[in-house]
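Annual report, structural modelling task.

Input specification for the uracil complex:
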Amino acid sequence: MEARSLIERKRDGGQIAPAEWRTLMQQYAAGDVPDYQMAALAMAIFFNGLTRDEIGALTDAMLHSGATLDLDHLRAGRVDKHSTGGVGDKVSLVLAPLVAACGVAVPMMSGRGLGHTGGTLDKLESIPGFRTDLTLAQATQQLESFGCALIGQTREIAPADRKLYALRDATSTVESIPLIAASIMSKKLAEGLTGLVLDVKRGSGAFLPELDRGLELARTMIELGADHGCPVVALLTAMDRPLGRACGNAIEVEESIMALRGEGPPDLMKVTYALGAEMLVLGAVATDRDDARRRMEVAISSGRAAARFQQIIEAQGGDPAVVDDPSLLPQANEVELFLADRAGVVAQVEPRAIGRGITALGGGRTKVDDIVDASVGFVITAQPGDVVRAGEPLATIFARDSAGVAAGRAALQTAVRIAEDAEPPLPLISHRVTEAGVQQWDDA
Ligand code: URA
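The model returned the following structure:
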């Protein structure tokens, strides 16, 4: 097949047929279509979009470029959660053991930090010894034993997406709804799920900040799931400020452990319970979302959720003692308070500036092969709307050295804005989207 003719067709607003997508993606995964041609096609898609049928065909083509998990023999429902990415978003770390402890199998496939957003794999790898590079056979065995595996996209799963995603990152073609939807769903459908819950972020720290674009992405992924018999529910949640207080790899693991022990910050718990309730209902262990919420509360108060996290950590080579003693996680050399320089109202805690600040401290990547310092980051106690006095602590900086403290302080000076008054922040959860349509969260 001539890739050049497909690029020309897409450039000129034409369509690519399902068989052509399949051959193209197989040849790309095999190295027979060069990156420069795929980059040109990605840019043509970025500008001209894809029809609904083409999005489906591209998703199928990427899904079938590799292996899939066959979990039909498990009695439990298999439900994963995917977030479109944010700052301080450690929900997966709490949700996976919590939902598994309630009886739903969670084959959770996560990614690394991207741009200003953090990644679940980097957070997990801050646990001494923790390995996320399980083979599909190992992940299957773990799911059979105790219902949860926390893995990265292995070489076996959707290899065409793996290559294309890295290429899109390098060619500024990430922010395309057809490409994002096909990329996420090709991986998720490869997990052999019986249900999927999406956390679609909106607000200044989201990849797609505008509500209508978030809703379009949610609807597209819901339709792709329906094409494959996989029910998908999406919640639209706020990313105009970080989620929870901790922002940085090891300190987010610590906050997640506290959440599993019943001491999580209210915003993190609200989003976790809302997403978890959808997972328990899709996984058929709860009759409705209220029932699901009660089951999750019991799993936390009884210690079962924290114990399940310990089990997962141990199975994946990590030190399970971190759950009882989070001080075993990597610790920063320098810890310094960040104080309010004036009295007023916290008008904004801007997530992109916080995310970039973590990278400046050494806790994120600017190149794929950068080594991440797990110990650095921020714990931000100030929240939009808080009234503060001059000199009051707003955050704590965790850094490698004094240069890191200075970089952290500069990031917080940009991110945390104190004013005379403040606009209300976005509602933490604003919409629930299913195949049936879009509901305001208050009515859902
Ligand atoms: N996450 C993915 O897996 N793919 C995208 O395209 C964007 C976010």
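The chain has a mean pLDDT of 95.
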